[in-house]
Queue: 2 jobs
Job 1
Amino acid sequence: MIVLANIISLTVIFAVPLLLVALGGMFSEHSGVINIALEGMMIIGALFACFTLQAFDQSGFGPAHPQLAVFLAILVAGACGMIFSLFLAFAAINLKADQTIGGTALNQFAPAFAVVLTWAIQGQGLTTIRIPTWVRITRETLGLAPAEGQSFFDTLFFKYFYLTTPLAIILLIASYIVLYKTRFGLRLRACGEHPQAADSVGINVYRMRYAGVLISGFLGGIGGLAYTVAAGSGFNSDVGGYGFLALAVMIFGNWKPLPILGSAVFFALFKVIAAYNSTLTFLPDFKGVQDISNLYQMLPYIVTMIVLVFTSKKSKAPKAEGIPYDKGSR
Amino acid sequence: MNQKRKPLSQNATLIGVLASLLSILIGLVLGFVLLVVLNPGAALEGMTQMLTKGVSNLSSFSQVLYQAAPLMMCGLSVGFAYKTGLFNIGAPGQYTMGVFFALLFAIQFQMPWFVCLLAAMVGGAAWGVFPGLFKALFNVNEVITSIMFNWIGMYLVNLLIANMPVMLASAWGASNSDRTAALSSANPGAIIPKCGLDKLFGDSPWINISILITVLLAIVVWVVLQKTTFGYELKACGLNRDASQYAGINAKRNVVLSMVIAGGLAGAGGGIYYLAGTVQYVIEKAILGMGFDGIAVALLANSHPIGAIFSSLFVSYLQVGGSAMQPNYSPETTDIVIAVIIYLAAFALLMRGVITKALSRRKEKEASGK
C-alpha cells in the first residue's frame, strides 16, 4: 500500500510541472505562436526562483515564513519566465521571424546562461543550486500533529507536497475559465485560428499574441520551479527535457485544458515508472535486460507520435499557429 | 564600370554574408557585455582567449578542425532540409543514431572505418525517414516529429548499448560499463586514418582526414543542389510546394528524400566524431548538443553548403576558445554567443533589409556625388 501511495504522490508531483508548462504552451499556440522555447523558459524561471529561495534561506526569512517565501519564489519564477518569453514574442510578433528558430535560440541560450551565471556566482564547477529543506509542506506547516510511523495517507499527501501542487490546480481552473468563459479567451483563440478575421472586428492581434506568449512564459517559469522541487536534487541548469515533454502533453491533450490534465498525469506516470521500475513488482519482468527504464522513458514520445498519426486529420491545433501575422496581407 | 554587374544592394550572397557577419558581431559584443557584468576584471582576458585560442598553437588549431567536421555535417543536414522548406531540428537524434551505427559496426562487427562511416550515414538516414514520412503521409509538422524522435533516439540508443555487452568498455579491459569501448583497444582499424596529417600538425591527437571528407561532402551537397534536376526539384518544393506539385514534381517523395538525405548527413557527423577514436559514447541523460549547434552553422551559412564549411569552422573556433576561458568563466559562455547568433538569424530577413537599405543608400550618395 505504501508503494501505491508513493507512486500516486510521485505521479502528482511530476504531473504538476507538465501540466503548468503544457497549459503555457496551450495559451501561446492558441494565440498563434508556436512556443518550442518552453524548456528554456522553465530553466530561466527555475534558475532565478532557486536563487531567490537560497537568498531567503540565508537571510533567515525563509525558515521563518517558509510558504510565504516559496510563494514569492514562485512569483519570481513566473516573472522571469515572462521576461524571457518577451524575446520570443518580440522576434515572432514584431519582427515576423521564424518562430521555430527563435525558440531554438532561446532553448540554447537558457541552459548556457544558467550554467554561466551559477558558475559566476557560486564559483567554478559549483553549478548546483540547492533547494532549502523548508520548501516542502509538512504536517507541521498545516498545524497538524506529527504523524506516527508511515501511514498510507501520510505518504500520499505529505511525502511530496509543495505549494506548487495546489497552485497548479488553481491555475488549471483559471486557465479553463480564461480560455472558454471570458472575452479575452475568445479573442485569443480567434487570433490563433484566423487573425485576419479577428483584426477585421477590431481585435489587436499583436497585443493578443503578446498576451499568449507572456502567459506561456509565466506558466513555463513556474513549471520550471515545480520541476526542480519535484526532482529533489537541486537545480542543475536543466529541467530534464520536461519542456519538450510538455509540448507532447499539450499535443496529446489536444490543446484543451482538461485533456491536458489527463495527459500530464499519464505522462508523469510513465516517468515515475521509468525511475522506479525496479521496485514495482506488478510490471512485466524483463529478465536480463539492462537499463529497461529507457523503454519507459521512450514510451510517452512514441504514444504521442501514434496519437498524432490518428488525429492529424481532425487535429484541434490552432490553424494560424506558426504564421507571423502581417497586417498588410488579408 | 562593368555594366553587367548587379548593384551591390541586389547581390543576395553578399548581403547574406554581411548579415551573418553582423549577427556574429552583435553576438560577440553581447557576449563581452555578459563577461563584463559577471566578472569585470577578467572580461578582456576571457574575450581574448575566446577569440585567439583557436589559432594560438597547432594543437588548438587541429582541435578546431576536429570539431568543425561533425559540426559541418550537422550544418549541412539542417541546411539541406531547409532548402526543401523543412526545419530539421531532428539533427541531434539523427546524429545520435549515426553514432550508434558507427560504433555498432566498429566494435560489434569489427569493420574498417569507411564501412562504419557509411553505416553511420545509413543510421542517420533511417532516423530522418520518420519526420519525412509523417510529414508526407499524415501532414504532421516535421518539427514536432523531430523533437519526439530526438528523445526516442537517445533512449533507444541508451537501451541498445546497455544491452550489448560487447559494445561496452568493460568488455575491452576497462572498468566502466556506462560507455562504449575505446576504439583504440576494441578495433584500431575503425579509427579514421590520419594519412600523415598529424605530422603536419605537430603530432596532434585531434587531427585526421575527417575535415577533408566533410569538405568533400559539402561540395557534393552543393553540386546536388545547384547542378542536378533532383536538387532543383527539392528547392522548388521548398520555395512553393503547391506550385512545384502543379509543375509535376512529386512533392511528397521529395519531402521524404530530403529528410533522409539530411538525416544521412547528420548521421555521418556522428560517425566522424566518434570514429576519430578520441571520445567514447557515454550513456546520456540529455540530448547531444552537436545537432543543435548544426542549426547555428546552417543559419550562419544561410543554408549554403559551401558557407557551412566556413561557419562550422567559426563555431568550432569559438567553442575551442570558450573552453580556454576557464576558470574565470564557464565554457558555456560560447553557447550563449551562439544562441544570440541563432536568435539574430531568426530575423534574417530584417537584417538583410537593413543591409540592403544601407548599401543602396551608399549607392545613391555616390550617384548624387557625381
Job 2
Amino acid sequence: MTSTDQQTFLSVRDLKVHFSTEDGVVKAVDGLSFDLAKGKTLGIVGESGSGKSVTNLTILGLHDRDRTAIDGEILLDGKDLLTSTERELERLRGNKMSMIFQDALASLSPYHTIGTQIGETYRKHTGASKKEARARAIEMLRRVGIPQPDMRVDDYPHQFSGGMRQRAMIAMALVCDPELLIADEPTTALDVTVQAQIMDLLKDLQQEFGTAIIFITHDLGVIADIADDVLVMYGGRCVERGTKEEVLRTPQHPYTLGLLSSMPSLEGPVDVPLNPIPGSPPSLLNPPSGCRFHPRCTFTEKVAGGLCSTEQPLLDLIDGRGSACHLSLEQRAEFFADVAASRHN
Amino acid sequence: MPRFLVRRVLGALVILLIISAVTFWLFYAVPRDPATMSCGKNCTPDMLAKIRHNLGIDHPIPVQYWDWLKGIFVGRDYSGFGHCNAPCLGYSFANNQPVLGTILDRLPLTLSLAFGSAVVFLIFGIGTGMMAAVKQGKWQDKVASSASLVASSMQIYFVGYLAMYLLVAKLNILDNPSYTPLTENPVSWASGLLLPWLVLSLIWTANYTRMTRSQLVETLSEDYVRTARAKGLSSRNVFFRFAWRGAMGPIVTIFGIDLATLIGGAIITESVFSLQGVGRLALSSVNRSDLPMLLGVTVLSAGAIVFFNIIVDAVYALIDPRIRLS
Amino acid sequence: MSDTTPLLDVSGLTKHFPIRGGFPFPRTIGAVQAVDGLDFQVATGESLGLVGESGCGKSTTGRLITRLLEPTAGKISYRGQDITHAGRKRLAPIRSEIQMIFQDPYASLNPRQTVGKIIAGPMEINDINPAGGREKRVRELLEIVGLNPEHYNRFPHEFSGGQRQRIGVARALALEPKLIVADEPVSALDVSIQAQVVNLLQKVQQELGIAFVFIAHDLAVVRHFSQRVAVMYLGKIVEIADRDDLYGNPRHPYTRALLSAVPEATADETPARERIRLVGDVPSPISPPSGCRFRTRCWKATDKCASEAPPLVQVEGNKPGHLTACHYPETAETVPSPRLAKDPEAAA
C-alpha cells in the first residue's frame, strides 16, 4: 500500500527552510522527508504556519533566495533541485513540474487573456508558434471542461466565474503534461459543489496523464477524497505519515487524532460539544522545545520523565507508515480508542 | 470608447465653464479696479468711464462674462481695438496685446520645458525605481531610496541657483538658460534648456523613483507574479510583462496630472532661469490685475489638466482590461 | 408580547442593489437581486443556521436583520415590533439587543484600542453602566469567553486568530443581547481552532439563552450548531427545516446536492456514497432564471419549473415546520438516505 514499491519520482530529504526576518529566524520547515511515486497523490495536511506551503514553494524554487537558508535535498527524477541554477529551474517549472494556487483570481494575471496565459507556458517550453499555442490553449480549456473554449480563450480572468478560473489555472498547469503537479489548497476558496467538480477533474486528469500530485490542504475531508498517502505537518515538521486509510482510520499522532475529532461531521452525534485541540498553533520564530505539539497535547503527562518538552520525537517509519511521538504504540492504542469510538459511530 | 470620449469632453467643457466663471467672480471680489490703474494719476471721471468702456468692464459682471464667452465662439468687437476674431480671449488690460497671441507666443517655451523635463524624469525616475525594486533591501536600493528622499525635499529656487552658479558661472559646463525655438535651431534649443530640464527633473525624478519602487514592490509580491514564475517564464519576462504592467497604471495617472501641471507653467523654474513662459505670464497677470490674460492662462492650465485626465483614463483602460469605459 | 410571538419575524424580505448606467443621464438599469422574498422566524433562544454558497444572499440577509442595510421590500419584526424602516432613535434600544459577530477577527477589531476598550465600547455608546463598573463587566466577559481577565489592557495584535474571535464574541455579549447574527464566525480560523469557537458559541447560546442566526457555508458546522437550518440559493430559501429533518430527509434537490458534495474525513470505501455533481455555475443574480431559480442546474427540471416559481411549503411527506420550495421534491422512498443514493450520471 505504500509508495516504496513503486518508482520514486520525487524525493525530499531532510529539508530545512529557515527565513531570516526582522524578529529573528523563522524555522518554517525543519527536517522534512518524503517520497512520491508517479501517478500517485500525496496529501499534505497542516494548519497555518505548519510549513506546508513553504515546502512546496521551495520545491519549485519560488522562495525568496536572499532571505532563505535551505538545507537538505530535493530530488526530482534524481536531479537535485536545490543545487540547480535558476535557468535549469525555469526549464522545469511549468514543464516537468507545475503548481496551482488557492486564489485563482489573484494568481492569474488580470492584464492578459486566459489564452495568452496558457499559451505562453506552452510556447516557453515547446517553442511553439503563437497560433499553435492558441490552439493548444483551446484544447486544454476544452479538456478542463470550459464551455465554448474557442470563445472563452480570449476572455480575461475577471470574466470567468470562480470555478472556471480554477479550471483555467489547472489547464495552465497541465499544458506541458507535467509529471509533478503541486496543488496548494486549490479548492479552499471554492464552494462545496464547485470544489467537488474540481476534485473530480483533478482525479480524471491524473488518470489520463499519470501526473504525480502533491495536494496541500487543511481539510481532512478533501484528503479522504483525493489522496493516496498522507503527510501531516505541524510546526514545520512531519508528525505522521501513512496511507490515507491508515491515517484516517487509525491515527498514530495525538495531533492527527485531535484534528479528526475536532471536525464537525454530517453524521454522528450532534448534541455533544466538539473536541477541540486546546491552545493555538506554535510560533515558528520561537517554537516549543521538544515535541512542538506538546503544549497542546493532552497526553503529555503519560510520557515518563517529561520527555515531551525536552526531546524531539523522531519520525519512526516502517514501510512509509509512522509518526513522531513519545507515546508507545500500545499506549496510543489504549488512549486513542475512546476518542476514535466517539467519531466512528 | 467613443461614447466615453463624448461624455468626458462634455464634462470637461462644463468644468472649464465653471472654472472661468469662478475666476471672473474672484477677480471682481478683490477690490482693485483695473481702469483706475491704467488711468494713472491725473484721472478724470470721464477718462475713467472711457477706459472702462474700452476695456469692456462697464457692464455688470454676468454680462461681461457672457461677452467674454461669446467672444470665444463668435469673436468680439471692441470700441478701442476693433474686431477680434473667434476664438477671442480679449486684450490684455496691461499692455493691450491680444491674449491668445501672447499665450501662443509663450507656449512653445513652456511645452519644451514640460516635455523635455518629463523625458528626463521619466527615464531616470522609473529606471532608478525599477533598480531599487529589483534590488530591494540591498545597498543599491538603500542608496536610491535615501538619495530620492533628499532630492524630493529640495527646492528649485535653491537647486536652480546653485546649479547656475556652479555649472554655468564657475565651471562653464552648461549654457546660460535661454530659449531658441526648436524649429529654428534644435541644438541651441536643447543646450539652452538643458539646465532647466535637469534642475526641474531632479525633484520629479526623486518622486518617480519612490513611486515606481513602491508600486513595483507591491506588484512583485502579487500572486500572479508568483504564478508567472511558476510557469517557468524568465525573470526579465516576469518583471516587465507582469510586475511592471501592474505598476504602470498608477504611474501613468500621476504622470498625466504632473504633465498637465507643468504645461500650466512652471512658475518658479521660469523665474529662476529668467525664461518667459506661461508660468511667468500667469504671475504677472495676477500682479497687474490683468483679467483677460489671467482668464486665458487659467483656462489653458485647467484645460490641460482636464485633457490629460481624459487621456490618462483612456490609457488606464488600455493597460487594465478590468476597467471598462462607459 | 405573547409567548407565541417569535423573537424575529421576517416576511417577504427583499434587497435589490440597483445598477446604474446609461447615457447621458445615468439611471437605474437593473438590480442585483441579492435577497428576494425571504420568510422565516427565529424563536427566543433558538439557533437558525443559514447555509448556501457564495452569492446566495446569506450575508446580505444578516446585514438586513441587523439593519446595517435598508431592505428594499418586506418586513422585519423584532419582538412583535416592526423595525423594517425604523429610524435611528427607534432602533437604538433594539440595536443593543441584536449584535453581530464577523468573519474576519483581524479586520473587525480596532488595532489601536485595548481589548478592554473594545469590549466596553458597546456599553459606552449605549451609556450602560453595569453594577460594579464597566471594567468589572469586561473582566467577567473575558472570563466567559475563555480569555484571561488580566489581558484587559492588551491590544488585538497580541492575540491569535482564535482568541481574537473570542474577543469579538465578548464584545457581542457586552450588552446582554437577545439575538446574535454570526456571519461566518469560524471560517477564517484554523481547523483545530474552529471547534474551540463553535463550542464557545454553543455554550453562550445554551447558557445565556441567546438566539442565533448562524450564517455559514460549512454544512457540518451548521449542523453542529443550529437547531433549525435554512438553505439558500440565489437569494431565496429553497428549504427550511429542523436540523434532523433537513440533514436526514432533504427534499430539495439543491440541498441534496450540497450535502453530497461535502467531503467527509473518513476512509470508508463504501462506493455506495452518493455523488450528485451539479454542472455549471450559479447564474447571475442580476437576471436570475425564471420560475425556480435552481432549474438551470437541476437534473429534474421540466417546463413547469421554468414557468412557475415553486412556493416554500410543507410538501407532502414533510414533517410540520419542514418547508421545501420544489415542484418535484426528492422522496424518502426512492432515496433511503441521501448518502446512499446512486450517482445520477452513472445510472443514466
